[in-house]
From TrEMBL:
GO biological process, one term: mitotic sister chromatid cohesion
Organism: Galemys pyrenaicus
Origin: domain of life: Eukaryota
Cellular compartments per GO CC: nucleoplasm
Protein name: MAU2 chromatid cohesion factor homolog
Compartments where found: Nucleus, Nucleoplasm
Pfam families: Cohesin_load
Family membership: Belongs to the SCC4/mau-2 family.
Keyword list, A-Z: Cell cycle, Cell division, Chromosome partition, Mitosis, Nucleus
Amino acid sequence: MAAQAVAAAQAAAQAAQAEAAESWYLALLGFAEHFRTSSPPKIRLCVHCLQAVFPFKPPQRIEARTHLQLGSVLYHHTKNSEQARSHLEKAVSAGGAVSGEALGDAYRGSSRGTARLWGPPRPRPTPYLTSPWLISQQIPQFEDVKFEAASLLSELYCQENSVDAAKPLLRKAIQISQQTPYWHCRLLFQLAQLHTLEKDLVSACDLLGVGAEYARVVGSEYTRALFLLSKGMLLLMERKLQEVHPLLTLCGQIVENWQGNPIQKESLRVFFLVLQVTHYLDAGQVKSVKPCLKQLQQCIQTISTLHDDEILPSNPADLFHWLPKEHMCVLVYLVTVMHSMQAGYLEKAQKYTDKALMQLEKLKMLDCSPILSSFQVILLEHIIMCRLVTGHKATALQEISQVCQLCQQSPRLFSNHAAQLHTLLGLYCVSVNCMDNAEAQFTTALRLTNHQELWAFIVTNLASVYIREGNRHQEVLYSLLERINPDHSFPVSSHCLRAAAFYVRGLFSFFQGRYNEAKRFLRETLKMSNAEDLNRLTACSLVLLGHIFYVLGNHRESNNMVVPAMQLASKIPDMSVQLWSSALLRDLNKACGNTMDAHEAAQMHQNFSQQLLQDHIEACSLPEHNLITWTDGPPPVQFQAQNGPNTSLASLL
């Protein structure tokens, strides 16, 4: 009896001691969380509260978690990367036995992972990330600290450009996490993303394939679909279309058959449909994509009506989501803008760009995710091209400058968009008749890209520059035209780019005076552009055919081409084609003795000329106009104002 009494007393004392330990720890944790979530956050006080845990000599599991929390706070909220790394490494080395403890839950980050391959990892604090990894390895079954610390620490290494340190850390964590489905999947996604950022898409695809098979084995069809869709996205980037088609078919079946959280199901459908839409748009199939795009727009409307109630799945491997709902909305706006621009619905493109940019500004006030800047740059790239077509060069130039500023803030963003930026500057140079600068910009863009579709787009535009300049670059021009010969081995599968190549060949034949050959090329362009509703190419081809018939003296046939070209150009609206068409209508009606119609067309031509001239002068007077001379290194930070425009207006009038 006495022994039992002693044992009971010891147990009571231990319970009281544990309760006391719980009290001081929870108190410090509560204060830390209060300071972290204050408005504005009081990070220094939060860090002091967490550091105050260590003098109490807490149990190893609490020590490891505190190192993790300190590392996370420092990584996300400060620039003290060295200290963040130190704490995380200690946490990683301590990992162990207590998973999902109540004490840790009070200050744990979100339990839901994010399967993101659309942008670089979000920046997070550094020094306190190392300690949790070291400590957590010593505590059996302490997976949540061990793997979260490894995940954060590898992100920190990547942020410091120490990718070679991040890879083995993630590989080891993946190797020992196979009994923990959530963390095993999350770490596979993370390592795949790291390889993607390094442009090693083969290794990334292999990891995503491993993840898909693992998810199937542990009974998570939802996460299996995420892995497969992510792999499909990378295969599209690699242009491995023979592998993409069966993979997307399988994904479609999995998505339709999966029964689960409605928001998760709809987000899978959005991911699947985004891949389908971008695949069609990459192929230049603007008309064929319409049913998929309509489904995608309906799907995002459905998601916006669903409540965001957190329903934790029973399978821990299902604790992922592709993108936040708000990010998906912006993405759907973005692909709608891409479609509208290719189809020549430029007012619609402007409308959706305005909506998307407004949404992005709201999101960026609360979220520093790099993917938002990527969305913003891609939106601006597309609307800049629209503005150059609609005769708003000054606005386009200011938006090019805005893209430069965004790229200055992120070396990775600049690396991914440098070629596009120089391409946009080349298009701007063409619009203001600075052909030497256009050539320099397009040549720089070619040097910076290995993307086949972008390469073909640049070469097509560079060829048009050489054609306009006459005999200056005949040898180079013939070489370029042979490389984008649509009759033979065209380098890309894009329907739109191939149609554009036929147009450029027709333009070249027109300038060479080979009118029958020009008509053949332009009729091929018309056939292809009509098949996929490529309105701008249709308008350009019609007006050039009209010009050819006018030169040949066939005024009736010329009129049959120019009138629909003018109508279509007004609908787009395309200022250059309207200017060209109005000049032809003026000359046609004058030749046919239609004085009133000739006067009306002349007045239209005068109005378009004045609008373009005013915009031309405004654009060339901006300090940003000096960007046309930038062909090397990062974007210039400042621009010096010019005394006035230095470009010829002859091509506009």
